[in-house]
Amino acid sequence: MIGGAIAAIVTPFRGGKIDEAGLRALIEFQIANGTHGIVPCGTTGESPTLSHKEHERVVEIAVEQTAKRVPVIAGTGSNSTEEAISLTGHAKEAGADAALMISPYYNKPTQEGLYRHFEKVAKAVDIPIILYNIPGRTASNIEPSTIARLSKIDNIVGVKEASGSMKQITDIIALCADDFIVVSGEDYLTFPLMCVGGKGVISVVSNVAPREMADLCNLFFDGKFEESRKLYYKLLPLLHGLFIETNPAPVKAALAMMKKIESEEVRLPLVTMGQENKERLRKILEAQGLLP
Known about the structure:
Oligomer: single chain
Low-confidence stretches: none
CATH architecture: Alpha-Beta Barrel
Shape: globular
């Protein structure tokens, strides 16, 4: 089952190229620390600025390196339905366990357009699909009623919900069958979402604190709610601190400070963190005991 703390893993770069060895090392760091899954080529993986060839290569590396030890949920969304079909087809061929599909961005489809987009991809490629709703980036909200319609398609199995609305989250859970997977797309809502029936988080924070995020979910699902709640509040400064500038610049800066990647390089139009915010982040990492 897909759930728990699933790392939306960064794509490390060196000199403008994908650092393949660095990516493999990051995946090993995740698995060694109990991460429940890997998402390559999501927002955190800078999918918008990867070429198609690079996108496919990152998915292939993730599948190879995990070697079925944890699920790989490949980011395959696009604002072109045909392109989404192509990326999703490659993910299946590469051996990914599921696909994460962001809703079409910029072109602002209606709810019917959103439904038909996901329906067409799901019918074209027989792989479990997790919808990804993040209206702050796409300008379109997948309404709970639309998600409920989509949940009736056999291979649409869940949603990564990043609207920031607990009402939206609870409406989705109320409208969909019990086996439909709802995970948070925002680290700071992980504990609240689990409290209302969610299954975990696709996490940015897991990049730097995989053990802690996995523990947060494990404790909750083991019925140790108070221990999970306390850990959540201990982590809260980090859950906010990794978003003081546009993701993934802060998490890459943090990983570089932790010596987990060689470079905090991001691709334009993203830029690396400003020095003042970097110092704020360093203090948060120090307080969490994450710096070497």
